[in-house]
C-alpha cells in the first residue's frame, strides 16, 4: 500500500478527464475514481474498466448537486475502504465560449459560475475528510490561462475567463486556510476536446502526460500558485 495512490477526477467521461484516467491506469499503483454524470452511458470508461479491472471505479457525480456530491463521497468511501484520497482533480467545467462583457446570457453566466467555481468548492469541502486521510493531500483546480488578468487576452470568453479567475482566487484561499494541503491551479493548454474545439493546437495525450507528471510530484512549494501544463508558473 505504501507506493499506491488514489485519484478522483471529475468530468472524466470525455475530454481531458478521460485522457487523465487512461494515462493514470497505465500504472498498476494507481486506483482511479472516475466520476461522470451518467455512468451507464460512459462507454469509454466502461471499456477502460474492462481492461483495468479493479483499478478503476466509475462513480456518478453531477458536480452542481450537493446531494449527488454526498452520494459520491459515500460511494468513494466504500470503494477505497480504509484508504484515503491522495489526489482530487476538479476537472469538470463548461464554457459559454466567445461571449463578451456586453453580450452574454445571464443564465449561462450563472450556470458557468456554478459548475466552474462553486462546484469545485463544494466538492473539495465534501472530500476534505478523505483527503485528510490521504498520503498526498493534493488538489488540482483545473483552470485556464484565460483566467489570467496579466495575460490581457481581450474581449472574448468573458464569462469563462471571469469564472476561471474566481476559481484561481478560491484556490489561493484554500491554500491559505489549509497549509497542510497541496492545492493549486493549472492551465492544461489549448487542447483538442469538445470544449477546446477542432482548431486547438495541442494533443491531450501530450499535455496530460506533462500535467500529470507535475501533479504527481507537487509539493507544498507549489501550493496556492498557478501553473501551466509545462510546469512554468503563470502570472495571475
Ligand atoms: N480543452 C481546452 O483547450 C482547455 C483549455 C483550458 C482549460 N480547460 C479546462 O480543462 C477542463 C477539462 O476541459 P475539456 O476540454 O476536457 O472539456 P470537455 O471536453 O467539454 O469535457 C467537460 C467534462 O466536464 C463534464 N461536466 C460538465 N458539467 C458537468 C456537471 N454539471 N457535472 C458533472 N460533469 C460535468 C462533462 O460531462 P458531460 O459529458 O456529462 O457533459 C465532461 O466530462 C475544464 O476545467 C476546462 O475549463 C480546457
Automatic annotation (TrEMBL):
Superkingdom in the source lineage: Eukaryota
UniProt keyword annotation of NADP present: yes
Entry-linked CDD domains: carb_red_sniffer_like_SDR_c
Keyword annotations from UniProtKB, A to Z: NADP, Oxidoreductase
InterPro entries: Fungal_SecMetab_SDRs, NAD(P)-bd_dom_sf, SDR_fam
Protein family (similarity comment): Belongs to the short-chain dehydrogenases/reductases (SDR) family.
Name recorded for this polypeptide: C-factor
Amino acid at each position: 500500500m505504501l507506493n499506491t495512490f488514489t485519484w478522483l477526477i471529475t468530468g472524466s467521461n470525455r475530454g481531458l478527464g478521460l485522457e487523465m484516467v487512461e494515462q493514470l491506469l497505465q500504472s498498476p499503483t494507481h486506483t482511479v475514481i472516475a466520476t461522470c454524470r451518467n455512468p451507464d452511458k460512459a462507454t469509454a470508461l466502461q471499456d477502460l474498466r474492462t481492461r483495468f479491472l479493479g483499478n478503476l471505479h466509475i462513480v456518478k457525480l453531477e458536480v452542481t448537486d450537493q446531494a449527488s456530491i454526498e452520494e459520491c463521497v459515500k460511494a468513494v468511501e466504500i470503494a477505497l475502504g480504509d484508504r484515503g484520497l491522495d489526489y482530487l482533480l476538479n476537472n469538470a467545467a463548461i464554457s459559454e465560449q466567445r461571449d463578451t462583457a456586453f453580450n452574454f446570457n445571464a443564465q449561462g453566466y450563472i450556470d458557468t459560475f456554478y459548475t466552474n467555481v462553486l462546484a469545485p468548492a463544494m466538492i473539495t469541502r465534501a472530500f476534505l475528510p478523505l483527503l485528510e486521510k490521504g498520503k498526498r493531500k493534493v488538489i488540482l483546480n483545473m483552470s485556464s490561462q484565460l483566467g489570467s488578468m496579466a495575460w490581457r487576452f481581450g474581449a472574448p470568453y468573458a464569462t469563462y475567463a471571469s469564472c476561471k479567475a474566481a476559481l484561481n482566487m478560491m484556490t489561493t484561499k484554500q491554500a491559505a486556510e489549509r497549509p497542510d494541503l497541496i492545492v493549486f491551479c493549472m492551465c492544461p493548454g489549448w487542447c483538442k476536446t469538445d470544449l477546446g474545439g477542432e482548431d486547438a493546437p495541442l494533443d491531450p495525450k501530450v499535455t496530460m502526460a506533462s500535467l500529470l507528471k507535475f501533479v504527481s510530484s507537487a509539493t507544498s512549494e507549489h501550493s496556492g500558485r498557478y501553473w501551466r501544463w509545462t510546469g512554468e508558473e503563470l502570472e495571475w
